Amino acid sequence: METLGYLIDGFGVALAPHNLMFALLGAFLGTLIGALPGLGPANGVAILIPLAFTLGLKPETALIMLTAVYAGAMYGGRISSILLNIPGDEPAMMTCLDGYPMAQKGKAAEALAISAVASFMGSLIATVGLILLAPVLADFALTFGPAEYFALFLLAFATLGGITGKNPMKTVVAACIGLMIATIGIDNTGVQRYTFGTLELFEGVDFIIAIVGLFAISELLFFIEDRVGKGQKLIKVNKLKLSWADIKGIMPSSIRGGILGFIAGVLPGAGASLGSFIGYTLEKKVVGKKGYFGEGDPRGVAGPEAGNNGASSGALVPMLTLGVPGSGTTAVLLALLISLNITPGPLMFTQNADIVWGVIAALLIGNFLLLVLNIPLVGIFVKLLSVPPMYLLPIVTMVAFVGIYSISNTTFDLYFMVAFGVGGYVLRKLEIPLVPVILGLLLGPEMEKNLRHAMDISDGDWTILWDSGLAIGLWLFAGIGLILPYIVGPILRKRMAVKTAHTTPGD
Amino acid sequence: MSMFNDRIFGVLMIVLAVAYGWGASQFPEPFGGAEAVGPETFPYLLAVVLGLSSLYMVVRPDPDNAWPWSRTGVELIIALVVLVLYAGLLQPLGFILSTLLAVGTLCWRMGARPGKAYLVGGISGVAVYLIFNFALDLPLPLGVLSFLEVG
């Protein structure tokens, strides 16, 4: 019941007029970001962080806005899946399977509306799950000592690639690169590390510059390489004809998808892609022969879409309670928290209760806003889909420049950002994931701090790192997280590829 | 299918790991004497892990992705030059002019008609300048256009 009281306080924060306004703005921008080609959710949130800073927003307002962007991007991602058969991001892949056939049959408006309702249900279920689970997990996390935290961070890196990941060793390489960059600067004993006497490096590398460079600039370079400057043909969206019976028809699918998605989102290493994949597969099993999956069955849109949104809200659970994000976008949100001087983790629930619960309440409100925004305004978002990337990406790059420049008004940061962009391009070419690099940058200082604390306690005895049952368990899971992709990864990937092969062109 | 990319990158990373580890051994002892975990301990760990995982990349590389040589490569280099110049000219030339040039050139090189490309660059530059200066109260440099400054 304590939770309920906090939640009511949270609504007090979230319903304050200016917070509500920024939530609406965030929801709108988020849908835009999700819908636009070449702007994934992590990328979009990253570009908006500097702006949230320079505007001097209060922590809870900034966080509410960017959480709304995050939720909105998940809604927006489905639009291009349905209309163009191009998933905005990986989890939206499954929505293509039945969404695009529906659009081909002249039922694009229905597919969009159904997916909006399913997204809403998925997020709603997952947010309720978050409200119930987060305080419990936060309480449990209070028992963690420094050794357990150190192991937990390892677990986060090990499972980041997900069990469908390709080459876990590359995740390790990426994490090391990120952690190494994080060690640059003056450490807490006052020793300069890897600064080469450069004044700008004394305070370390600003991870916001790194994130924007790695995502936004490398994306521009990829678009130039792929020569896909021309826009997509505008798709006609028919007039919406949706009855209550249709909505009722997809409800069971949405609820099942939402619950599965939430579980997949909370668990380390599962992630939203697997959430929507399981959502789709389960739907096919449950409905069985009565369905016409792959040919435009509305339940085939609702299941994965609810799963996808459920997973993205579920992913907030480990991020908020443990300070350990499980996905790229939640990593970017963590970057925001750290820059606002809020230490994520169990203590946040007691020390910054108003912010945490304000954000959770904002997530609930944001979902209603998104549902309301998405059904009547879908026409606008569809028009935006036809904006050619050759105009869009240069402008996005400019926004990244302005954002980074306005943080400190120095050119040095801009050169740095471009350098990170080139680095990001090379890493992506080598199929080395960028998210572990970012996570390394973010968690590096905390990880080292916990290692030092643990060693101080044990007086230099390394065995303290695996001394408690909990720590051993975490190490074990981390090990499994690295080995499992080699065993089940190829099988799962093959299945997902077979499912999507006949509709998605290429890979 | 060649597998050079991963091998070369792996070797580079091993070199980095060694250099990084050597760098850590050169840290001065912190004020107040050495402790169980000094400034160099965590870097040592990282150097070892990076070295081993890079070695794995060298031994078991993935197939290569093609690098863009020839024309696309030139386009990429043009884009990079534009980005670096944009960063360098933002202050001296001012935000509006440098944006006109940078966004315009990028749009053009990505396939837009030159006239339309620079028009987009100019409009976006002016629009963002106005939003930042007047709506958000964050001054951006005017550079050579500073004679336009009001007040």
Put the structure in a nutshell:
Chain A is mainly α and 507 residues long. Chain A has 21 helices and two strands. Mean pLDDT of chain A is 82; it is low at 502-507.
Describe the structure.
Chain A is mostly helical and 507 residues long. Helix content of chain A is 74%, strand content 1%. Chain A is built from 21 helices and 2 strands. In chain A, helix 6 (108-141) runs parallel beside helix 10. Chain A is globular, with a radius of gyration of 22 Å. Mean pLDDT of chain A is 82; it is low at 502-507. Chain B has helices at 4-25, 41-59, 70-93, 95-109, 114-135. The mean pLDDT of chain B is 85. Chain B is flat. Helices cover 68% and strands 0% of the residues of chain B. Chain B has 151 residues and is mostly helical. Chain B has 5 helices and no strands. At the A-B interface, helix 8, helix 9, helix 18, helix 19 and helix 20 of A face helix 1, helix 2, helix 3, helix 4 and helix 5 of B.
List keywords for this structure.
heterodimer; A: 507 residues; mainly alpha; two-stranded antiparallel ribbon; 1% strand; globular; B: 151 residues; 5 helices; flat
Q: What share of the residues of chain B lie within helices?
A: 55-70%
- Biggest sheet architecture of chain A: 2 strands, antiparallel
**Chains forming the largest contact:** A-B, 62 and 65 residues
General form of chain B: flat
Q: Biggest sheet of chain B, in brief?
A: none
Low-confidence stretches of chain A: 502-507
Q: Average the pLDDT over all residues of chain B and give the rounded result.
A: 85
How many individual β-strands of chain A?
2
State the helix count of chain A.
Answer: 21
- Give the SSE string of chain A: HHHHHHHHEEHHHHHHHHHHHHH
In whole angstroms, the N-to-C terminal distance of chain A is 48 Å
Q: State mean pLDDT of chain A (0 to 100 scale).
A: 82
Tell me the distance between the termini of chain B: 65 Å
Helix/strand structural class of chain B: mainly alpha
Question: How many alpha or pi helices of chain B?
Answer: 5
- β-strand percent of chain A reads under 5%
- Cα-atom radius of gyration of chain A: 22 Å
